[in-house]
Amino acid sequence: MPSAHWNGRLIAESDETVIVEQNHYFPLAAVRAEYLEESATETGCPWKGTASYYTLLVDGQRNPDAAWYYADPKPEAEQIRGRVAFWRGVEIRA
Q: Residue ranges of the DUF427 domain (predicted)?
């Protein structure tokens, strides 16, 4: 089952991830919300839309903008609505 780990903690785990551009998008319900902190960062993707970010906060350590999601993806990316992906040192175990 795919899982996401950072700073020695399990951040997310689900057998229902969607892979887009080699990134596992986890259902939001599979992500441990206590490790997520809203970020003001946004970026744009020509085919997916506007990405919003979370900072990971685990045991007093911060990983800024290490998770992203598309709250309102473009139609071509509808399969990632309600899902979160990770980077910046977050280990994905598939």
A: 4-88
List the CATH number of the domain containing 56. 2.170.150.40
Neighbours of 86 (CB within 10 A): 24
Give the largest CA-CA distance in the chain.
38
Q: Which residues of the chain have pLDDT under 70?
A: none
Query: How many domains are there within the chain?
Result: 1
Q: Decide if 78 contacts 28 (C-beta within 8 A).
A: no
Dihedral sign, Cα of residue 36, residue 40, residue 44, residue 47 = positive
pLDDT at 9 (0 to 100): 97
Domain span at residue 72 reads: 3-93
